[in-house]
Amino acid sequence: MNVRPEEFCSTVFIGSPVSHKDFTFIPVIDVTINGFTGENSLLFFGNISLQAVIIMDKEGVMGVYALKESFRAEDALKN
């Protein structure tokens, strides 16, 4: 049987902001849909992973805490 791995979709999203005390936390998540294709079959699975957290204080000063080395802010901002 000839089975091939495939990546069908990978997108970076900005999540909903959450405020706590004087800070606002904005998650940046990566949603990937992968799969395997065979002769007469398809197998799909997905992965949701936190890439970074954007932290903003009450004065509007922002910082980005990247959780993965491969995180690029440009990818998050283009979506």
Folded structure, characterized:
This protein is mainly beta. It has one domain. Helices cover 8% and strands 63% of the residues. Strands 1, 2, 3, 4 and 5 form a five-stranded antiparallel beta sheet that branches. Strand 3 (23-37) and strand 4 form a beta hairpin. The longest helix is centred in the last third of the chain and has 6 residues, at 73-78. The protein starts with a strand and ends with a helix. The mean pLDDT is 82.
How would you summarize the topology of this molecule?
Layout: E1 4-14, E2 18-20, E3 23-37, E4 42-57, E5 62-66, H1 73-78
Distance between the termini: 38 Å
Task: Kindly provide the radius of gyration, computed on alpha-carbon positions and rounded to a whole number of angstroms.
Answer: 17 Å
Count of strand segments:
5
Reading the helices and strands in chain order gives EEEEEH
The number of helical segments is: 1
Number of domains: 1
Query: Shape, please?
Result: elongated
| Sheet with most strands | 5 strands, antiparallel
Instruction: Write down the overall mean pLDDT.
Output: 82
- The secondary structure category is mainly beta
- List the uncertain runs: none
Task: Estimate the strand proportion.
Answer: over 45%
What portion of residues is helical?
under 10%
